[in-house]
Specification:
Layout lengths: L2 H10 L13 H13 L29 E2 L3 E10 L2 E8 L4 E9 L5 H14 L7 E7 L2 E7 L4 E3 H6 L5 H20 L12 E4 L4 E3 L5 H5 L6 H18 L1 E2 L9 E2 L9 H4 L5 H10 L17 H10 L54 H49 L13 E5 L23 E2 L3 E2 L14 E20 L5 E6 L15 E2 L4 E2 L3 E21 L8 E2 L2 E8 L1
Parallel strand pairs: 10-11
Antiparallel strand pairs: 1-2, 2-3, 3-4, 4-6, 5-6, 7-8, 8-9, 12-15, 13-21, 14-20, 15-19, 15-21, 16-17, 16-18, 16-19
Helix pairs in contact: 5-7, 5-10, 7-9
């Protein structure tokens, strides 16, 4: 994707949130909501919130291209200069990679909140968000360094070419709602979730930028951050389905709704909109507690929205387009040129084919006639004998096949039908880890709670995908599922927190009690493989066991240069 368009978005609108426990007065909440609904692409300065000095008194730092921060980050291009701070595209000369930098004076009234918000976002370490790499106060400056995604395009640019297909819109609301649900569980909100803050990579993954940074830079707070972010996701889905902004004011390069008609469902704005996604957008766009969907309640948190998306069947991907079949070309033989003799002299002269010699005359003598009749009789007799033998063979084979078919039908009738797989109840789950200290035992329950928006997530490891280069890399980590008693396991389905994990599924013996080491799981239910978002395995023969281990040996990249992190969202076992 174009680096230039990504630059303008990644730095200019990296929004963020504050801890969910932060309180704000009603005036600041209304101001933040109004700015989200009616903001234009051209940023304009606005007065500071209650209790803050006006930002006009603090001008942006006087920096220029080529300026170097911390003897490491070389500023290249200023993308935004607004409200006392500036945003830049820069180069990390130590790691030789592009980064984004927000800079503001250390005496800016929002300098401390910006540092606190950036450090909180950095602790999240979720690869679905653009990562904060550094937050420093130095030489009367405060600056925040974040990732620069070179292979991604802002949603604003994507929507400029047209509305999304139903499958793409489904992926958008699914990925963004799950990511924001994870952020809210850690006490972080966004509050500036717009098409400018969502990026789509070349692989079709969506990443959110600005968590816990841009909202702090702008002094935006909200009394109901869950509801603010949920309504923002609804606006993104509405725009993706209709290519219209769901408010009266134009914003983000999109035309707003006609004045005076109110909020109307997406399938009434544009023909061919997926009805389920249309209702989902209206459930998220809460207006004073009312929605356009009469059957289902509104979604007021990202977690509720993620659960509603999971309950709705996924929109089918678009049919592949095929290129037109080239016109059928006759071969030279079919065109008649293959058997034509070469020409001689002019273009119209052709060499005539030689006339074949006439056949020899038939025998006309009496001896010849007798010989002819004798040969004919022998041929007729041979044909009759061969036909009789062939018919006899066919009748025998038909009788044998009918008998064998009858026996096979009798066997099939006596054989009981194979029972359909049924889900097995999971009684408990525990973390499998060879380390002295566990990874995240308090989150293990999230992998069996039947909620797609929750997950057991490992810690972040640097330098090595095998959990920071453990002494025995094959030990890895994972989750041990307890079925309560020995059961016949016939299939496994695992949803992962992030794609690219190297994983296998193992089982303990039926009489095993409290298995804790890798040798306690001798039965292999799936091969060691690099999995995508899910892993599904169906066994040829059920295995009786009580304990099943989802064993992870290597973690995927978390989006940074040398960081690795993984986890499991949901485990289902059938018998």
């Amino acid at each position: 994707m174009a680096d230039r368009s990504t630059a303008a978005v990644d730095v200019a609108d990296s929004s963020g949130g504050k801890p969910l426990t932060a309180k704000a007065d009603q005036a600041t909440t209304d101001e933040a909501k109004a700015e989200h609904k009616a903001s234009n692409n051209t940023e304009t300065a606005r007065p500071a919130g209650k209790g803050q000095s006006a930002s006009a008194d603090t001008s942006p730092p006087d920096l220029h291209s080529g300026h170097k921060l911390a003897r490491r980050y070389r500023l290249e291009e200023c993308v935004t200069r607004l409200d006392g701070f500036s945003s830049w595209r820069a180069v990390d000369e130590m790691l030789r990679r592009a980064v984004g930098v927000h800079v503001l004076p250390a005496d800016h009234p929002r300098a401390r909140p910006v540092l606190a918000a950036a450090r909180s976002a950095a602790l999240l370490g979720d690869p679905r968000f653009v990562q904060v790499l550094d937050a420093v106060e130095e030489n009367d400056l405060v600056y925040v360094v974040h990732e620069w995604i070179s292979d991604a395009t802002e949603l604003t640019t994507v929507l400029a070419t047209g509305a999304l297909e139903p499958h793409d819109a489904y992926q958008l609301v699914s990925q963004v709602s799950q990511a924001m649900a994870a952020a809210h569980r850690e006490g972080l909100a966004h509050l500036r979730l717009t098409p400018n803050s969502v990026l789509r990579t070349e692989s079709g993954q969506y990443r959110i930028r600005g968590l816990a940074v841009m909202a702090a830079l702008r002094g935006i707070t909200a009394s109901q951050p869950h509801r603010t972010d949920t309504e923002a996701i609804g606006a993104l889905l509405y725009a993706a389905l209709t290519q219209r902004w769901p408010y009266e004011s134009d914003a983000h390069g999109l035309t707003g709704l006609p004045k005076g008609v109110g909020l109307i469902a997406p399938d009434q704005v544009r023909a061919g909109v997926h009805r389920g996604l249309s209702e989902l957008a209206m459930r998220a766009l809460v207006n004073d507690g009312a929605t356009a969907s009469r059957q289902d309640p509104p979604c007021t948190t990202p977690g509720e929205l993620a659960a509603a998306v999971a309950e709705m069947p996924g929109a089918r991907p678009p049919e592949p387009s095929f290129t037109a079949t080239p016109a059928y070309q006759h071969t030279t033989y079919q065109q008649g040129a293959y058997a034509q003799p070469p020409t001689r002299g002019g273009t119209g002269a052709r060499r005539l084919a030689p006339v074949p010699p006439p056949p020899p005359p038939p025998l006309q003598s009496r001896a010849g006639r007798v010989l002819k009749w004798a040969v004919s009789a022998l041929i007729i007799a041979a044909i009759g004998l061969g036909s009789w033998q062939l018919a006899d063979i066919l009748l025998k084979e038909e009788g044998e096949s009918s008998d064998s078919g009858q026996h096979e039908d009798d066997k099939n009738a006596q054989r009981p039908p194979k029972p359909a797989p049924k889900p097995l109840a999971i009684e408990d789950a525990s973390e499998f880890s060879p380390l002295d200290t566990p990874l995240a035992p308090e989150r293990v329950g999230a992998a069996i709670d039947k909620q797609p928006g929750t997950a057991w997530i490992t810690k972040r490891y640097e330098g090595y995908a095998n959990f920071g280069n453990l002494k025995n890399r094959l030990d890895g980590s994972g989750i041990v599922v307890d079925l309560g008693s020995p059961q016949d396991v016939a299939g496994i389905n695992v949803d992962f927190y992030a794609p690219g994990q190297t994983v296998e599924v193992l089982a303990a013996d039926a009489d095993a009690t409290s298995p804790s080491t890798l040798s306690d799981f001798p039965q292999k239910l799936s091969k060691l493989q690099r999995a995508d978002n899910t892993l599904a395995a169906t066994l040829d023969k059920p295995v009786q066991t009580r304990y099943v281990l989802i064993h992870i040996t290597e973690l995927p990249s978390d989006g940074t240069a040398d960081g690795y992190r993984g986890g499991i969202s949901e485990i289902k076992i059938t018998g």
